[in-house]
Amino acid sequence: MATIPQFISQKLPSIDFNNIPLLKDSRLRSGQCSSNKSLVPGEPEGPCVKTEIPGPRSKELIKQLEHFQMVGTIQYLVNYEKSIGNYIIDADDNILLDTYTNISTIPVGYNHPKLLDLFKDECNLKSMVNRPALGVYPGLDWPGRLENVLKGISPNLPNIQTMMCGACSNENACKSAFIGYKMRERCGQDFTEEEKKSCINNQPPGSPYLSILSFAGGFHGRSLGTLALTHSKPIQKLDFPSFGYWPIATYPKYKYPLEENCRENEETDKKCLQQIEELFEKQKSCAPIAGVIIEPIQSEGGDNHASSQFFQKLQSICKKNSAYLIIDEVQTGGGPTGRFWCHEYFDLPCPPDMVTFSKKLQTGGYFYTDELKPKHPSRIFNTWMGDPGKIILLEAIIDIIRCQNLLDQVEKSGEKLICGLKNLEKEFPDIIHSVRGKGTFVAYDGNSPKTRDAIIKELKKNGVQAGGCGDKSIRLRPALVFQEHHVDIYLDILRKVLKKVGGSKQKC
Amino acid sequence: MATIPQFISQKLPSIDFNNIPLLKDSRLRSGQCSSNKSLVPGEPEGPCVKTEIPGPRSKELIKQLEHFQMVGTIQYLVNYEKSIGNYIIDADDNILLDTYTNISTIPVGYNHPKLLDLFKDECNLKSMVNRPALGVYPGLDWPGRLENVLKGISPNLPNIQTMMCGACSNENACKSAFIGYKMRERCGQDFTEEEKKSCINNQPPGSPYLSILSFAGGFHGRSLGTLALTHSKPIQKLDFPSFGYWPIATYPKYKYPLEENCRENEETDKKCLQQIEELFEKQKSCAPIAGVIIEPIQSEGGDNHASSQFFQKLQSICKKNSAYLIIDEVQTGGGPTGRFWCHEYFDLPCPPDMVTFSKKLQTGGYFYTDELKPKHPSRIFNTWMGDPGKIILLEAIIDIIRCQNLLDQVEKSGEKLICGLKNLEKEFPDIIHSVRGKGTFVAYDGNSPKTRDAIIKELKKNGVQAGGCGDKSIRLRPALVFQEHHVDIYLDILRKVLKKVGGSKQKC
Prior knowledge:
The structure is a homodimer. Chain A has 14 helices and 16 strands. Chain A has helices at 56-66, 101-104, 113-117, 122-129, 142-153, 166-186, 193-200, 224-227, 262-284, 308-320, 388-403, 406-427, 449-461, 484-507, and strands at residues 87-89, 95-98, 159-163, 211-215, 248-249, 289-294, 297-298, 304-305, 324-328, 354-357, 364-368, 432-438, 441-446, 464-465, 467-469, 473-476. The longest helix of chain A has 24 residues, at 484-507. In chain A, 59% of the residues are buried. Chain A folds into two domains: 126-401, Aspartate Aminotransferase, domain 2; 407-507, Aspartate Aminotransferase, domain 1 (Alpha-Beta Complex), CATH 3.90.1150. In chain A, helix 4 crosses helix 11 (388-403) and helix 9 (262-284) packs parallel to helix 10 (308-320). Chain A is α/β, with parallel strands linked by helices. In chain A, the strands form four sheets. Chain A has a seven-stranded mixed sheet with strand order 3-11-10-9-6-4-5, with helices on both faces. Chains A and B meet through helix 1, helix 4, helix 5, strand 3 and helix 6 of A and helix 1, helix 3, helix 4, helix 5 and strand 3 of B.
């Protein structure tokens, strides 16, 4: 079993990226200690709900918090000392099977013993507590740790930049696209004096009219820059100034089941791609497109999938128009689709220009091509540029995924989950439909927003923490240690819930 | 001595903000265990430089890192296991007195034993490792921890929102200003359908033409939104689209010594304030000003100070025009000026509307008024909304500041430092001038950018890590445990350096 590198003191060889095999083939599937048994010793046998949720203790704490923080989005307070594996345990000792995992951020379940052990090591502890400005004074262990991460999970891209969170990663990927676009335009020339003077006052030519193409229904963060790329819910965007001249394309929305709607869905792809080509043309005269940002599966927007052919053609349109393709794997990255990166499914002829990540990976960041390396220092920079404490966690998480063969586990659990859900959509066609997913990154739709909300509410009452997305979808985002027996529990409870929701629907 | 609260299980009383005394009066000055002795046991007696910097080991590691990360801004690699207190120790065992502290982010020196002890506690460890989505599923300990922080350091503002970093804090403070501005305009009405539809496509009226007024020379972050507020160096802004219609005012730049230039500096204030009033008028017809963001001391821009009168009048202009005043204390907050918040010096008749923070406080975030609480949930939201691991550190840092009377220490060291520097500017008038500062948040100017760079280079050769800002300034950003004997070491070395730089200047 691979151990967590504590301190890389010997000189490491440089990476030969030609010799890094595709992830799905080996890197994260080389574990030898997989097992059919429970991956999480000490997990409860199932959920157990004792009070309404939020219960009295949660309510009391929310009331306390309300004096000095907004609490409108808080569901309940969590006992993180007790929560374990796939089970989140709330302030009132209710035990919930967690299929939402703190908005898809908990990769290997709660309180994984290997993660808890990490900071008993003095070097790890000191790296975390003495958090440096990584762009200026990184620690001795930083190059080795970063190289380990890169070797473990790079989507065949040679460079990595860590950041703080998903929005910050997407912000900086967009900045890299603008830098790359202008570097190419300048053909090696330096900035002009006019550019330097004008940019200080936010004016062109230094602050040029360039754009990033994004997709309707997409979500890339909630900073002002990434909000201009986010188009999922008005409540996230209302009242904030934006880049009104950035183009927005249609993301394909397919009919399900896919196998019965091939021709129609192909037609959808075609229309969407044509619109993108038109937008590239249209933008040339006002605000050329420097980059295209897209989720492999639109998550917040409703778990919308697009075909491999769509992504292949999108990449080709980008190349034709010299725009950088940014794949936002903030929610899909880290294994939940059964591959470490979801875009591996698309069989792109070459890697995307950038891949952004965060959430399950604990640290934000992005991988990028050599072409995108800025000519000048300090172009992509901020005070912290990430956090060593999170890289220490990520190193261990990669090790756990490899050692416990978690990508295989996700595939197995995912197959069982999708199969079970498809049976349920046949059994309850008036309540749910459009089951879809890769690995355990699975969703289905309620027949109306109201039905969806009722299902989520009933699931919680029955011991399952679920999450919604889009207008009427339920998304599953379990940890990678979600096994077949957890699938059984989930499906049993869901069946009970659908019966109840169906019953009350009939009564209406 | 106060202990770090591990777990707040009992119901805490709600806060009465009328009874929170001003910070400078008591909250952080109530320690009873202050001492004149060294605050950092085990610190070296002084700097010790053995190799060029970066030395051979640093160079080797930079070469390794260069294969997969940009390294243009990296000075050297640091041994964070060995670094202690005010001394940063590099990969080649060079020991430097650190007056820059990782861009002003290390509050109580390297490897403070109290900080290292924190994560031996199981509750703290689990809070840090199981990092939740704080806006939805905070841990049991979160309300208590946040209340402790608020009680300890709130700048007389009743609400707090944690964030990830300084840029993220300023982004969300600006969003809060836009929300507040539009809430007032709507007089309790809900969003219109037209607003909801248009904002999804980044168009008005949902994405309105509103603006934030910022200042020439200011720095508020490098995300696209905050970059529109940042006007310090072209390299940070070139090639990125911006909000060209956001107004930029002149920050006062005073002549030093202040006592000899009173009339001229008052005139400067007057002109700046008049321009701000004019900008408010001008913006009304195109993009009204929802908020004004300003640093109490422009740091990255060159340690530019503005008078208390300037800030008082700025607040009054904001109130007259119903714009929110955001004080960006990302660099000044946390005690380096001798008060926990630098704006305490300005004796504002009432608190600013928002105060943003990060760096020394480990977590980003902002304090805000009740008026700025959004009517709808999920208006200010992202996945993590901060990080419990950083709040655990902040709680302990506040305790250390209180217990070791560090604000008093900063005042004492600052007085000695400024006095010594004023003597040196008299001794070397052709090399340095314009000594200025509050506490140990001190700067002086070289007589040219070249001279400044030479001084910083020589300081490093002689064992002092210094930092530059603006065109030709040197900024001191030591930790709060920088004591009088460290000031002596700094001044001795600087005198030697100025002699050398002066000597080579004469030779030129």
